[in-house]
Amino acid sequence: MRLSHAVLSTAVALSLLAHARAQDTPAKPEKPPEKKDEKPKDGDKKDEKPKEEKKDPFPKPPEDLAKILARFDKDDEPSRELKRCYVSALYYHLERDVDRFILFFHDSFERNDGGVLKKVPPADLKAQVKNTYAATPKTGLKLDQLIDLAKLRVYSKAQAKEADDGWKKKPSDIASVMADGDYLAIAPVIVVDRNKDEGNADVFYVLRKQDGVWKIAVGE
To answer: How many angstroms separate the CA atoms of 111 and 132, rounded?
Structure first.
């Protein structure tokens, strides 16, 4: 009832006022919920910082390379990433894709020349690879026709010192040019008869981390 139509006693007026306030204000819970567990509303998202996606330092592999790389999906780390780097580099090398090929090389890459390491800066490496491509015809063989990937192995420096059996290029010799923390990735070239002298029919790379990514630090 509106006050203009009735005279209310002070006690009744205060009672109604208290009742109205009770209706307008919900009762407070004994233990208010913690705000830190509440999910932000759509209008509050402007205060959230977007998550930074980890950028892949290497290009997305083409379908045929992706199928080869899938062979190593169940390998433990760092074996999986080491093999992926080794295989990807050789794939782009055979494809004569110099820009992608050199992405897999460490900035401090050194060429192993008979046990003597010679530093090759990225720009020089790119120029040398281009000259090699210009001077030699492209092979028609695919990676898995040239390299026996089923026999691809990775060794730590300590393991390489004890892994000479079956290799033409002795891992123990390669270990002498490896730094602590480096890994050796090595696989045999597919040949008709490995008992014959058909050259040093193994392909190896020594890999080292650069900015958290495995890259080729020593090669031939």
So the answer is: 15
CA torsion sign for 65, 66, 68, 73 is positive
- The mean of the pLDDT values for the chain is 80
Joined together, the tokens standing for residue 90 give 């050789």
Q: Other C-beta atoms within 10 Å of 54: how many?
A: 7
What's the pTM value of the predicted model, to 2 decimals?
0.72
B/e letters for 106-121, b = 16+ CB within 10 Å, e = fewer, are beebbebeeeeeeebe
Nearest to 187 by CA among 156, 220, 146, 142: 146
| H or E stretch at 216 | strand 213-219
Domains by residue range for the chain, with CATH? 63-219 (3.10.450.50)
* Cβ atoms 121, 102 nearer than 8 A: no
Cis peptide before 32 (omega within 30 of 0): no
Distance CA 156, CA 85 (A): 16
